[in-house]
Prior knowledge:
alpha+beta; SsrA-bd_prot; SsrA-bd_prot_CS; cytoplasm; RNA binding
Amino acid sequence: xxxxxxxNREAKHEYFIEERFEAGMVLQGWEVKSLRxxxxxxxxxxxxxxxxxxxxxxxxxxxxxxxxxHINPDPTRTRKLLMHKEEINRLIGSVxxxxxxxxxxxxxxxxxxxxxxxxLVKGKQEHDKRATLKERxxxxxxxxxxxxxxxxx
Length: 153
């Protein structure tokens, strides 16, 4: 069983990843059960810095149909992220002064707790995205050539 719950594949395409961090999350019981079932989407999520704290917005955790009847699950609620104060201050400084953004890259289990891998990122221009795609294809072709196969054009 893999410890990865979900990946944000779009983030690697849309941004240059400068630095990665690990953060904990404040979750409700039904959210933990849904995460164990793998019902998470990080595609359009981002991290907001507000009042010296980090908040995860846009992450969609689908409630299980067996969720308790006395609570009203909100799949896209804002969730607080937990990090050391020094790390938060470093992120805040980079976001405010250097024009960086913070986005979640992945969510996974670590010692029974849900963790989020967040990254300090800078947006890519369209030509940067094409260059990245071209480089990835070249690496794939190079590996295929070295392995002894040929590329059909």
